[in-house]
Write a structure and sequence with these properties.
about 220 residues; Rossmann fold; 9 strands; binds adenosine-5'-triphosphate; about 25% strand; four-stranded antiparallel β-sheet; globular; nucleotide-binding; 5 helices; alpha/beta; ABC_Transporter_VariousFunc
Amino acid sequence: MEPLFSLQNLTYRYDGGATIFQQFSFSIFPGETVLLTGPNGVGKTTLLHIISGLLDKGELHYQAFYKGNPIQLSDMRAHLSYATSETVMFSKLTGYENIECFRLLWKLDRQYVHKAEELCRLLEMEEMLALPVDQYSLGTRQKLHIAISLARPVELYLMDEPFNSLDMASRDRLAEWIQRDRQAAYLIASHVHQERFLDSRIVSLARPSGGNETEK
Ligand SMILES: Nc1ncnc2c1ncn2[C@@H]1O[C@H](COP(=O)(O)OP(=O)(O)OP(=O)(O)O)[C@@H](O)[C@H]1O
């Protein structure tokens, strides 16, 4: 089977910083869930930022392919949804209004709204949607952020430590949802929660002196 997305010979160094990746290659297949693990500071968030085209400063070399076709990482934004570790939200607006803002921003139809609300129900925070986001707890903000990100209709989802602020029941439900979804691929940075993803591939980033080399 052809990978959905493939990154070859990635070399990356932050401006004035150390080399984080050295000739690193990684692929993810349609419908696959990959757990990205490794110690603090090894480069998990950096890799997700790179794949979503957010890092254009520093030394960056790679070849990338989406569905077999060469692609610039800055163009990957159209094909993926990235649930960053920091929640990005309009805090004076309600949950419903935030869902609607992202619908307008991404130019989506009502299907997206239905899916976002379904995810809010799954994560048991639907009753908070009528309130402004600045009244939410940290975990409730995280749930809305995840619901909005996963409702976007794409074939590749990137998630950075999505479980951190969630209660146990929500962690279980979210992990089940992700593993049931065979239509999309998920790349999830998390150095815990491997027990929730027993059937998933684990890519463990190491910290060799020269930066990460191609995953084994
Ligand atoms: N803007 C930046 N400029 C320079 N170096 C940076 C920058 N952002 C991150 N780094 C460095 O890049 C390395 C990788 O950081 P990154 O946040 O990707 O690690 P991580 O594996 O996600 O860590 P954690 O498990 O703590 O979230 C670290 O050594 C970090 O200090």
